[in-house]
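User: I'm curious whether this sequence folds into something compact or stays loose and floppy. Could you predict its structure so I can see for myself?
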Amino acid sequence: MTDGRAPPSMTFMSTISSRVCRAFGLVLAISGCAQSPVGLTEQGVVVPGDWDPPASTRAIAATQYVDVVDPPPVLPLGSCTSTNPWVGTCTHPACIRAHPGTTELDVYIRGRWTYVGAGGTYTCRRNSNPASTAYLSVHSVGRAIDLMIPTIGGDADNTRGDAVANWLIENAEYIGIQRVIWDGWYWNGEHGFSQISDTRNADGSYRTDHHVNHIHTELSIDGAARRTRFFTEGAPPMTCPIVCYGTAVVRADCSYTDCAATGEVCLDGPPRCGAGAPPEPAEATLQASATLPSVTTVAALSRFEFLPPQRLFDTRTDVASTRLARSDGATSGPLTATRTGTVTDFPGLPAGTTSLWLNVAAVPGVLPGFISVVSDGAASMTSTLNFFPDRVRANAAPVALGAGGGVTFLSNTDVDVITDWTGVFAPTGLGLQTAGPLRVLDTRASGTPVLAGVPFPLDVGAPAGAVGVVASVAVIGGATPGFLSAFPCDAAVPVTSNINFAPASVSANTIVSELTDGHLCFSSSADVEVIVDVTGYLVPEGELSYQAITPTRVLDTRSPTSRYTGRLGERQVIELPIQTLPGMPADVHAVVANLTSISPGSRGFLTAFPCGVAAPPTSSLNFDSDAPAAALTVSTLGSGSLCIFASARTDLVVDVLGVFVPTPAAPPPTPGPGPIDPNLDDDPNPPDPSATDDASATDDAGAAGSDAGARPSASSGCQCRVGVGERASTGALLLLGLTLAALRLRRRRTTAP
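Assistant: Here's the prediction. I'll summarize afterward.
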């Protein structure tokens, strides 16, 4: 077969074989505490030379095919030099902590083969292979595991390591394994087995790591996202002691919760949390002594001016992307890691324009990545929009014009880009009157969704004379993907869009739109629920003008030097002192910032709000558990500080793009409507009702959402459970295991096509 796949007959035999093995694994799991697989002895046996997979493994491996998706290149080249396998020192925007599937598989393997140690999952670094140093390591994108195997005299313990490596390859499709490297060999889900080069350095060491003390395991995108059968149909159940597995506590009923969230302490006996590493803190840690980054203002103080919504370019077609001048001279095609695009042609641009208000949408290919939108000629140190395969994402992007009067678009992977503009910042125009955040619409409560193709008018509660509104809009998709547009109700539905949404997902973006008699209209391509939280109004006499800032990263909880380090905890509130950033203009009243959620523990949301009040029942960004998400926010400050509430665990990146300050000689700003009284409901209502109270939501240890009010009582040693905490005899457990296994196998065989 030219595509590397096996004939159906071979696949069928492999499936039956693996089902029998998994059924037998079920017996072991139920009949006692964590056991080593049959046939292994306590004393390992060294196999001379490299790993030699047996004929049976090679035969099954020939039936496996898994798409291999490698991480993006390091750009600019040389910006990331760390190859440290445990403490990568790079701060590349593509770096993301271990995905839920990665962590869950790591936990499972170390529970099934108790001699396997934790070598770690995430580290932000470049690839250590001499031939691939221009690319990030798969550990950097959260889809790799190092499984530590004991050595004997410095050589691989093949009796132990081979069993794990063989199992991973034999079940590659079922689990979602794209690559395995162990003891001189590697297996690739598209190309099969290959031997690692034996080339040595001058000191006799191998030039390329032969992996004699650990098995490098990479998950596919579907495996990392828990979409493969291993996660949807289940692996052989693990035993049920109340101990720590990785960063999760396993309760007596086999449900999981987060170690750090409950403050649980690891118990004696294997496996321990992170092989002795301290558990993740329950919340992000404030580093009060951290150095705050300096900001640099660009262009003059300016006001907002609406323009008719217009599509600047769409790289999916040649005719729609003529305004985008590609860096390699091409006249068509998407952005790539080596092809940027610049636009300098803006029809009808008002004189003196300093910045543009854009809406940027990414239509990704097979790789995840991010887009940066910057002033022409400026370096990219921040990101505008993160994207993931099979999902179209959009985000607002206020960006200052560069020295050449243009804007540049960069991406770290291949991606089609669609960009619209709706307004500019210029010497004259509208000023901002801050508000809220104030929830003015939740169609779930009203029972009236936005219907496909039917304009939906909304009274946004604008003050007299308001011309426009600034609002965070969240869309809860139904069964059909699509897009939503915001526009003044006396205008035709525009050919542009503000939010792209996927089925059964929540997408959010900040919109700036003109009003008609205080009303804003929405049009959607599919039936959706919509939530609108107003953060400001644009009025002719608005006292606040816009000051653009060179995009500056003020927070990255993945970085050890950030003001907060570690993932935000569930319901944690952090404070960012925007006014005290070196170089910040005086008397800042509101900030324009891009929020990016990375490595979330479950589906959730973030709320940006002025410090000094309780977190309001609104949201600024919604995120899923399996992909980064970004959204722009325009938020009022409280005593010069921005506060951010997290409904679920997540790393957080905050990039400041601009601020609003009083116009010189203008009277003090008149505050708009304040937040809804938090005492009415101290539990913020997320746009997605399953964001915080869905018991099946998983954190990044593959664990169920934590329930601090039902904290399990710990027990020492290995305690297995049958019924309600009763320990059954080994004979009864074995009989139960055999019965369940037989029923499971019979059911699958009789229902197969």
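Summary: The longest strand covers residues 544-556. The first helix runs from residue 8 to 31.
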